[in-house]
Design brief:
- It is a single chain.
- The chain is 52% helix and 20% strand.
- The chain is an alpha+beta fold.
- The chain folds into two domains: 4-57 and 262-411, no CATH class; 66-258, no CATH class.
- A six-stranded mixed beta barrel has the order 2-3-8-5-7-6.
- β6 and β7 form a beta hairpin.
- α2 runs antiparallel to α9 (260-298) and α9 (260-298) crosses α11.
- The longest helix is centred in the first third of the chain and has 40 residues, at 21-60.
């Protein structure tokens, strides 16, 4: 459809000086609109990917890639389960854990907590909590010493520091001659960690696995085994594989199931924002329609002469499709270059804007993530470019088709 002649004439129409400068202005605004829409789409999706990555990494600091547990919540032979799990080529580490609800008390300060019993020598292989210690060391958890490591916000709520004592109240109770009494145990704060997610920093308390077995009366059993994968995005597939084959008698869960609603909400938000920002590109693309309609009207005599010289209707259509497509291609290229450049340098652009105007886009006193993270996905870039080019090309079809229907005699009647 596109021969060198059509391409030559279409390019000539694009760069030639027009008598009607308003058409040139509409063409320029269409090009800039497409560029602005493409740049905004790439940048916003990169920022959303960055926030998703940040939160996912903070979640995975405490939540393992995979967990294997008994359906009753009491796993007896955890070393065997750990060995079976590590036999899978994609599982690189496994560690036992005990998880239960409890209440921590310090004076008049009381807070419900999630108590997790871990082995200090195995836990760093499946989580990053050891690297997130603000005070104390993770290895300070000793069996029989009844030490506890608290989240930073939980320590603030209880008003305790390293070396202070807290009282743990468990759901089970002791039956005494005086009646039923709650089980209490004094723990010494040996460390404080900071993950950056309030959900964990305000409720999580870590104790030694042996101490957890004694406090929660789980002698010889654990809640389950936590596993780490070499590819966290393969977790759902590996979970299904383990559940169907080697671990069909156990309950296997992957990290995405712990915060399924959050990840689903982020996915829906990305789709909606993509559709909303795509309207910018769509509006700019439809400006191409008005531009070409005016160009076709302005070039009626030229079209008639070309038809008289033997140009076929499809050649006329190709000429104006080339002209409209150039606007879409140039706008898409400019927007892509600007969007990719901004996404890759957002960590320097945003601080510059904050210093220039004396503002904080994300106030550290309010937000846990105080910078705009950016994670550029090239598949998003290709998708945005493809949609933009398709919209630009579709916008040229109707005006070009109308131009191809021009009758030479009618167009030259009053010339």
């Amino acid at each position: 459809m596109f021969n060198p002649v059509e391409l030559f004439v279409g390019l000539r129409y694009t760069r030639a000086k027009r008598r009607n400068h308003f058409i040139s202005f509409i063409s320029l605004s269409s090009m800039l609109g497409i560029a602005l829409g493409v740049m905004a789409l790439i940048t916003v999706l990169s920022v959303m990917n960055g926030f998703e990555k940040e939160v996912r990494e903070r979640i995975l600091d405490m939540v393992s890639h995979l967990t294997v547990s008994d359906f009753e919540g009491k796993l007896k032979d955890w070393p065997k389960v750990a060995r079976t799990a590590k036999n899978h080529p994609n599982i690189i580490a496994a560690a036992p854990y005990i998880e239960a609800q409890g209440m921590l008390i310090n004076g008049s300060s009381v807070n419900g907590s999630l108590i997790r019993g871990v082995l200090p020598e195995h836990e760093p292989t499946v989580s990053n909590v050891a690297a997130k210690m603000k005070h104390g060391k993770f290895t300070d958890l000793k069996a029989g010493k009844f030490g506890v490591i608290l989240g930073q916000d939980l320590a603030r709520i209880l008003n305790v520091h390293v070396g202070d004592k807290v009282t743990m109240v468990t759901p089970s109770a002791n039956v005494t001659p005086a009646g039923v009494a709650p089980r209490l145990k004094r723990f010494t704060v040996v460390g404080i960690f900071y993950i950056g997610m309030y959900e964990y920093d305000s409720t999580m308390a870590l104790i030694h696995l042996n101490d957890a077995q004694r406090v929660f009366r789980m002698k010889g059993v654990v809640t389950g085994v936590r596993a780490k994968l070499n590819d966290l995005f393969a977790a759902p597939l590996i979970r299904e594989e383990l559940q169907d084959k080697t671990m069909s008698d156990y309950w296997v869960r992957d990290w995405s199931s712990y915060h399924a609603n959050w990840f689903r909400a982020v996915k829906i938000e990305k789709r909606m924002i993509f559709l909303l920002l795509l309207l910018i590109v769509a509006v700019a693309a439809f400006n191409i329609v008005s531009t070409l309609v005016m160009v076709v009207t302005d070039k009626q005599s030229d079209i008639a002469i070309l038809r008289t010289l033997g140009a076929a209707p499809r050649s006329i259509m190709a000429i104006f499709m080339v002209q409209g497509a150039i606007i879409g291609v140039i706008g898409t290229i400019i927007g892509t270059i600007a969007g990719v450049s901004l996404s890759l340098n957002l960590d320097t652009v945003v601080p510059f804007i904050e210093r220039l105007f004396g503002i904080h886009i994300l106030d550290p006193a309010v937000y846990y993530i105080s910078v705009l993270p950016s994670d550029l996905h090239w598949n998003d870039v290709w998708m945005i470019c493809s949609v933009s080019l398709v919209l630009g090309l579709v916008a040229t079809i109707y005006p070009a088709w109308q131009a191809s229907r021009t009758q030479p005699a009618e167009a030259l009647r009053y010339e």
